[in-house]
Amino acid sequence: MKAKVLVALLGSLVAGVAMADVSTVLTVDLLGPGGHSNGAYGRTNAVHAASRAILEIEKAIPSTKECVVSNFNGGNSVNSIASDGHFTVSLKAKNAKALEALKAKVQTAVQKGVEAENQFRGVKPGDLTGGVPAAISFTIR
Fold first, then answer.
1. Per-residue pLDDT, 13
2. Alpha carbons 130 and 13: distance in angstroms, whole number
3. CA angle 82, 67, 17 (to 5 degrees)
4. Bridge-partner residues for 30, per DSSP?
5. Is the pLDDT confidence value at 2 over 60?
6. CA distance readout (Å), 4 to 10, 11, 12, 13, 43
7. Is a pLDDT exceeding 60 seen at residue 15?
8. CA distance 77 to 92
9. 65 vs 44: CA distance, rounded Å
10. Long-range Cβ contacts of 97-106 (<8 Å, 24+ apart)
11. Is the model's pLDDT at 122 over the cut of 60?
């Protein structure tokens, strides 16, 4: 009897491992020129770009079982244009190939959000403001 219970227990454990999901957490960092709201109104805003990116992520991966965005933060005061924006993206998939597809969707969505903010502010790559790049840039790690 003990042997049958052990075999049943091991069998269910192996089945659980075989069906296990894979997951990862990505950190998204956005950087821009920032500035004081009095003299730099109209510059690109890293928090606005992050918000646009999150909206694009939600359109690309609407399932909260596959994707959760959290830890949104950025900027340094209420009357400044944010030079930084950050958030995390938790991804969960059935296998490594599906997880890579989700990562690619996040990459594309963040790129779209950044491009939307840059375009809204009339900024092109290579433009400078105050001697620093005017366009929002991002990294995903």
1. 46
2. 60
3. 140
4. 85, 138
5. no
6. 10, 10, 12, 14, 69
7. no
8. 34
9. 33
10. 98/22, 99/22, 99/23, 99/24, 102/61, 102/66, 102/67, 103/24, 103/26, 105/57, 105/60, 105/61, 106/26, 106/28, 106/57, 106/60, 106/61, 106/67, 106/140
11. yes
- At 79, list the tokens: 């009357």
Listed residue (56, 55, 35) closest to 45, CA to CA? 35
The structure tokens 């290579």 sit at 126
Beta-strand ranges (E) seen in 45-116 are: 67-74, 80-81, 84-93
* Euclidean distance between the first and the last CA atom of the chain, given in angstroms as a whole number: 51
∠ at Cα 89 (85, 95), nearest 5°? Answer: 155
